[in-house]
Amino acid sequence: MGKRETQSHESSAIRHGRLKRRNAGRTVLKGVAATVTVVAVSAVGVGAWAVTDVMNDVQPGVALVGETPGQIIPDVNSIEGGINLLVIGSDSRAGQGDGYGDPKKETGVLNDVTMLLHVAEDHSNATIVSFPRDMRVPIPQCPRPEEDGGGFYSAMSSQPIHASLGYGGIACTAETVEQLTGLDIPFVGLVQFNGVVALSKALGGVDVCLAAPISDKHTDLDLPAGNVTLEGDLALQFLRTRYGVSDGSDLGRISNQQMFLSATVRELKEAGTLTDPVTLYSIAKVAAHNMDFSQNLRSLNTMVSIALTLKDIPNDKITFVQYPNHYGPDGEVYPTIQAAEVLMDAVKADKDLTITDGTGGSVPKDQKTIAPNTPETTNPSTASPGSSEAPDDSTVELPPGVYGQRADEVTCAAGNG
């Protein structure tokens, strides 16, 4: 499901419209975890009264370009090319109280986390791609809000991907990811800083393990090695920490986030959460208060369809992967083009993925220490692509330097202690 090359920016059938930039703060990672639970609403029969109550709490959806307001979205099984859902988390402090620094001083609006969920058309597997916040990418023309004069912001040849949200809002981040991946993204969700606190409480916490203690004065996080339950502020601190991971980088933080999400997926299924109407209702209420949706994603039919799809995908067919990247001579992070092409071609073809180079940060639960994975200092463009398909042509082996894990793999945060 690649870019529709014959359509213009304005006339594209399912494209991102002029979504108003939000001032409310958004957060890291919890994006996909929140979305997985949100779209689970009514998956197995929440009462009609509860559904109506939940939907009354959801913010009005924003119509995308080419979308008819109020249009009934078809069942997800009929959407060509599967599902592409973008989750954006911002580090904005606006509207989030004073618990994350002085909002008058912390005025930046960055998409600190950008994650893309892709579900295969036959619903046999799912891939969640994390884009490093500092990775430099082209920023395309982005819709300018009508209150700012309308039209488009100018394209930029190279900027950190985290700048896209502050530059042109949700639509700009979505357009940037579309251009980078070649995928059309009709579904977008934006989550708040405080959302992870409330949502993790609604989930009853998420159990993770630490191979070493984590200490990070920047997020007031201090955790011992071993098994811990992350709930409320503790969950948010864990997901935000970068100085508390083995290499102190955003790239290491992504590994922590993927480990947290893998644990979340396992616990949701093992606890029967997706078949418990009471739990689904309480989670949906929390999510409705802490998320903004594109109009397509706000559709109850779409939420239910995606929930039913995710519920039935085996954990060993759900893969979390970091978009291939490397450090350039200038110390900046750049996409690793060849490896990225292997990854995205496999995603577009709905292939199951095999990761050959580990998580990039977390460690298997029975392993006590880790040697940090350091990205290449130059673009490994001459390296062998490392792509090979299994005999049944259903799986693609990703090249060395592409990190991630499956949802069935139990890993532990490396820590810095």
TrEMBL record:
Alphabetic keyword roster: Membrane, Transmembrane, Transmembrane helix
Positions of the UniProt region annotated as Disordered: 1-20, 353-405
Similarity field: Belongs to the LytR/CpsA/Psr (LCP) family.
The name this protein goes by in its record: Cell envelope-related function transcriptional attenuator common domain-containing protein
Compositional bias ranges of the Polar residues kind: 370-387
Domain Cell envelope-related transcriptional attenuator span(s) in chain numbering: 111-269
UniProt keyword annotation of Transmembrane helix present: yes
Xref: InterPro entries: LytR/CpsA/Psr_CW_biosynth (IPR050922), LytR_CpsA_psr (IPR004474)
Any matching Pfam family: LytR_cpsA_psr
UniProt superkingdom: Bacteria
Membrane-spanning residues: 28-51
Lineage start: Bacteria, Bacillati, Actinomycetota, Actinomycetes, Micrococcales
